[in-house]
Amino acid sequence: MPAGLWSRGWLLALTISVLTCVSVGCGGGDDYVPPEGVILRGKVYNDGGPMRMERPDVGLGSIELILVPDGVDASDENLDLEITIAEVDGSFVFEGPGDGIAAGKYRLAVYHREDGPDVDNLEGAFSTVNSPIEITVSEENLGGEQDLGVIDVKEFAGKASAAAPSEETPTDTSS
């Protein structure tokens, strides 16, 4: 086969591949636009100050925060929940899947992992199932930010129980 034909055939195959990729999409998903949401900012404390973090750089000391949508069975292991890790000063940000957290009501779970990733120093009182801390993400803030202020778990300690929070005694930290 003459070299000119081989190079033209190769060029033709490459052109067809590129055009197919462009018209069909390589991996798709470029058309997906996440729903507009709200960036949530705040601080989480215990007894008036940040929770102790021994060595967060090696996993000894972290504060894991999880948003559980209202009405969702938090014990379902297949849930895709929003999770963030607080900074040493207690500050945190939930950014959501690109454009923030969807408006609605949530329960805020807090895990204080001072002694390692499998130990909760809050003893499950603020777990995804038990936490009495409720957050309302306002529709008025869609496309922007919402400051949740300081959330001190000690203020909620008497409301935390072994059962999921009752809807009869809501605790709301909306702003």
Write the SSE topology.
Blueprint: H1 3-24, E1 39-45, E2 63-69, E3 82-85, E4 91-94, E5 104-112, E6 134-137, E7 145-152, H2 153-156
Parallel strand pairs: 1-7
Antiparallel strand pairs: 1-4, 2-3, 2-5, 5-6
Characterise the protein shown here:
By secondary structure, the protein is an alpha+beta fold. It is built from 2 helices and 7 strands; from the N terminus they run αβββββββα. It has a 4-stranded antiparallel beta sheet, with no helix packed on it. The chain has a 3-stranded mixed beta sheet with strand order 4-1-7. Mean pLDDT is 79; it is low at 21-25 and 162-172.
Task: Give the count of structural domains.
Answer: 2
Helix/strand/pairing category: alpha+beta
Q: Report how far apart the termini are.
A: 75 Å
The average pLDDT score comes to 79
Q: What's the number of helices?
A: 2
Strand fraction equals 15-25%
Features:
2 domains, Immunoglobulin-like, 25% strand, alpha+beta, 175 residues, globular, four-stranded antiparallel β-sheet, 15% helix, three-stranded mixed β-sheet
How is this structure best summarized?
The chain is α+β, with helices and mostly antiparallel strands and 175 residues long. The chain has 2 helices and 7 strands, in the order H-E-E-E-E-E-E-E-H. The longest helix is centred in the N-terminal third of the chain and has 22 residues, at 3-24.
